[in-house]
Amino acid sequence: MNNNQENGGYGISVFKPGTPSKEKTRGIIAFIVLCVIIFVQAFYWLFANSVEPIIWGMPFGMFFVVLFIILEFVALLIIYLAEGDDSTKGGTV
Amino acid sequence: MSWITVVVIIFIYLFFVMFLGAWAGRGRESSVVEYIAASRSLGFFVMYFLMGGAIFSAFAYLGGPGWAYSKGAASFYILGYCALGLVPWWLWGPRALRAGRKYSYVTQAQLFTDRFQSKALSVIIAIVSILAFIQYITLQMKGSAYVFEVASGGRIPFWAGALIAYVVVLIYVFYGGVRGVAWTNVFQGAFMIIIAWILGLYFAFKLYGGPSEMFHQIATANPMHLLVGPGTKMSFAAYSSALLVSVLGFAMWPHLFMKAYTAKSERVIKQTIVLYPTFAIFVVPVLFIGFAGVMQVAPDVLGAPDRILPWMFIHMKFPSVVVGLVLAAALAAAMSTQDTITHAAGAIFAQDLVEPLKKEKHTDKEATMWIRISVVGFGAVSYLVAVFGGQTLVSLLLGAYGSIVQLLPLAVATFFWPRATKAGAICGLLVGVLYNYGIVLKFIPQFWGIHAGIQGLIINFIVLIVVSLLTKPMDKEHVRKFVNL
After folding, report:
1. What is the DSSP string of A3-72?
2. A45 and B419 in contact by Cβ < 8 A?
3. What ipTM score was computed for the predicted complex, to two decimals?
4. How far is B287 from chain A (nearest CA, A)?
5. CB pair distance less than 8 Å for A80 and B239
6. Quick check: bond before B445 cis, omega within 30?
7. What's the pTM?
8. Most buried among B7, B122, B372, B478, by the most CB within 10 A?
């Protein structure tokens, strides 16, 4: 996707030129994981549009929404930690 | 319940917040970058509450239980949206921060205006933001007014209730700037969270013997209440599109976007995003309060669903001190949103509307003065709208409120697509905003219940791309500055 040279420098530019490919892969994975979480949350009714079973005092739908909030938090934490200090140089998603 | 005790507690609370806010800004130099962006120095702890206070608004505290009570499962949307709202900021926040440091921006429009070299864009963004802010503030004022009405047993009228809370906010925003906003939000945020948990669980246990039993009873009495889709209060398409548009649009709110300029470092922004979903967990007990009300009172007895939280209190025979504290927490929710917005509105009006239209550039001192004047002016206007606002005005504001997400293509183009041009940006934004108004004013039908914002966004992107490709590219060196941040 990093076609900086294409279109005479006017192409879509997701990463800063010179970003290491490892960092790029990590950025793309993080992006996909977060998109999946957003879509599951938006379409929660496909998976959990029911009252029973009641878990942790919540109807199943609500439990499912809360579960994905926790998963989101864990995913964000992993992405953050994986970035380490090199994020100060910038460039990742 | 003695109403005097309740009102006294609320006033003590208000005084405390006012002094805390004014105190936070003491001894700081009087400059624009300090007043708007706290000299780009805020750490994680304060950032977390600054962003959290903004979402924990009267909508979450009074509206959330109202939704749980009247719309049931549709209220889960609030949880998803609170949790995910800040995730796209991972893309915009750090980039905006770097751009802000490099080219000294303090508002969102300054960034877009510089990228697209257009003062017109600045004016359009400023007008849309300010109209949307008035709508936002009006909602919070209604919340505050409810609180005073309930606290005083109807002795404090709507106009006075809305006025009291807002004057307090104005005072500390005027003196404290963004630091005042941040530190009061730390206190108010912590206070609200504690009260919310205690209350949500208390009602569930006291009235039903526990949340599980409560939901069993609700499901038996009304099986559709805890579901979404056909036959319930929200259709599938409405739920999903509302959630998506809210998540995409949340970080585009100018008052949130510009907080990227207050952060000390990119790490601070990312830490805030990582921990932001915890705020959604705090909303869970708030929804419990609304669900607890389902079996207690019929909707026609209650009047408006937003009254459910105050109603639950009055009928639980709590001691006056407790009622005072709880109402103060509801007020905290409204105020912690009002302050951020009032502050941002002042900054935007002065920096993005007045400044580009004047011939000479303001000195730093003049600019800070203009922002303070705008803060007070904006406060007065939104108060008048809240008290006297008519139907036409309301749809004008609602249109702007729904238009904020239309700023998204500008952010995408600024950071990722150097080929986007000034004409493309302006046309896309105008079409997106006008389309949204078309739906609000019912000139255009709303297809399949899909959120107007999403529909406008698709058209907005198409127009931006097509018009940009048809017009001459902008100076390469200039546009690459923004993608190479």
Report:
1. -SSGGGGTS---S-TT--HHHHHHHHHHHHHHHHHHHHHHTHHHHH---PSPBTTB-HHHHHHHHHHHHH
2. no
3. 0.83
4. 10
5. no
6. no
7. 0.84
8. B122
